[in-house]
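Weekly modeling sync, notes
Attendees: S.R. (lead), two postdocs, one rotation student

Agenda item 3: backlog of single-chain predictions. S.R. asked that every request posted to the team notebook include the full sequence so nobody has to chase files. The rotation student volunteered to paste the first one in as an example of the format we agreed on. Action items at the bottom.

Example entry:
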Amino acid sequence: MRVHLFRAKLKGWKDEYDIIWFDADRYSKEEAESQIIEKIGFTEKNGREYPYTYYEYDGVEYYSYTYLGIEDR
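Predicted structure, as returned to the notebook:
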């Protein structure tokens, strides 16, 4: 099976990553990527709120993600 691979940095203080994959025979790269939802969060610093972008897939939140390409599994 061929899969689209994404490497995603988990939200939190640790330097942890997940690999997210989608069946390449079923999804195009764009269709797979569209399932990783962009969201806006807010953080407070010195009494002010600042927006930041994060991502969510399957209930898990990520700071960022990178497309790694297609791989045979």
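Discussion: group reviewed the output briefly. The chain is about 5% helix and 65% strand.
Action items: rotation student to repeat for the remaining queue; S.R. to check formatting next week.
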